[in-house]
Amino acid sequence: MKKIKLKNIIPLLLISFTGSFLIQCDKEETVLIEPNQRAIFTSEMDFDNRVNVNQDIDFADASAGVVSRTWTFPDNAVDIDGSDNNQTSSNKIVKAFFNQPGTYNVTLNQTFKGDVLANGQSTGSNVADTTIVVNVLSEVNINLRANILNDDGTLGNPLVIADNAENEVIASKKVRFSYTVDGDPDIFDWTFNGASPDTFDGSDVDVDVTYRSLGVHDLKFIARRDRPAGGDTISIKNLIKVVPSTEPVNLISVNELDGKIGLEFSRDMDPNSATASQFSVTLENNGATIPVNITNIDVDSNFPNILVLTLNETVFRDDEVTVSYTPGTLATTDRVNADAIPQTPVGFDRLENILTSILDHSFENSTNINDEWPDNMWGGMWAKYNRNVSSMRAKTGTNSLLVEYEPNGGMIINSGPATIPTEQGQTYELGFWIYVESLGNSDPAQFLPEIRFFADPPFQELGIVFFNDTFPTGQWLYQSLFFTANNTEDAKLLIRGFNEFNPEPLKFFIDDLTLRKVNLRP
């Protein structure tokens, strides 16, 4: 009896494993066994077979064991390179040009020498059919329209979209720009001169902007895609003419701005009308009052609706600062005087929230909390909790994270696949809004219930909030935790809850997590 033994296997670059291999027999008899295995490619397969009209796409059949093949293309939509037959081809490689936008099926019928293999198993047939879906995109083409936006949110008069139209808009009024677009672009870039915002890169089909700067302004809108490459640009000269308003100017926000105080108004302010003596500023840090005075008043170079107060002291994140204004000479560029500003805390909302691009910090788009904020697997009392995304309460938007510590329980969860970048020596503020619904009945003589934050790895405590019996309930409160990173690391964010000495549940909502780089007063 002659023995046959496997000597080696030479794999080919095919879609599924099956390679040609040689069998070496005792008598040096070599038998070549060729598989019947499909291997079909297109030049745009990594890009969902998306092509522009009249752009070529290659179809390739690298299958082993093929006796015959027939490519079939849609009627009246394709030009096959080098062929008078634009519907079928038997070539291994076919270059085709689609001349009409739409979604098309290209089929390949193959006959093999033997049964076709799929995932290493015989299909029981020597015939295989494959369908390839090709998406042919039209040129990118934008259709733009615009309307005055009434104060009640309804659409007002349409604007003329043309160069030198100079559509009149009253200062501080809004315009809604809307568009439709062909060609399936996925990158959008707006530039609004004289308005807030001055740029926007979202895909929203309705974009509202507030015109604040007197004068005539241009508009630019780009919609494009990288692959297949295509785009359209609308650039309109002198589209909007902002005219003076007789309506009051509104104070929108008061925030720290590069160590100074920025007062954002609803339209551009005249810095020459501002008088320092008409403002009052207080600054405290850790309970100590620090004397301050205003050394300069100007407007932001990029946003002239922001009045900038420079002090003799830099404003740090851990300072408590207030500002007020007594009516006097302060006016807009269209000569409307500003109203009184009562004593108003200076916020820090302009600092970048690092978490925005890392995780769903406001829980608006969370779909699987067990994946996004999984249990950290400590077990024991640390597993005695419940948490889920809830629409019962929200600081902003519609959702928040509902957490309930069980009686004598606790919690430990982590940020799942998301990690927070920290830099050694950099100080950060970890902030969140919390709404406590019930505190339970903890023993004040024991360790109090708490929520505590960590970064891991390496394990570092970031801050803690205790739930004593005077902690406010039934309202949203902002909690701020400062820490300095011990390492430069991409670490998971851990949230630990403690309720061991509370015989009742403790229930609260968390919303709008923030992580910001900050400077604290030396």
TrEMBL record:
Family annotation (Pfam families): SWM_repeat
Record keywords: Lipoprotein, Signal
InterPro entries in alphabetical order: Ig-like_fold (IPR013783), PKD_dom_sf (IPR035986), SWM_rpt (IPR028059)
Signal sequence segment: 1-23
Presence of keyword Lipoprotein: yes
Calcium recorded as keyword: no
Official protein name in the record: Probable lipoprotein
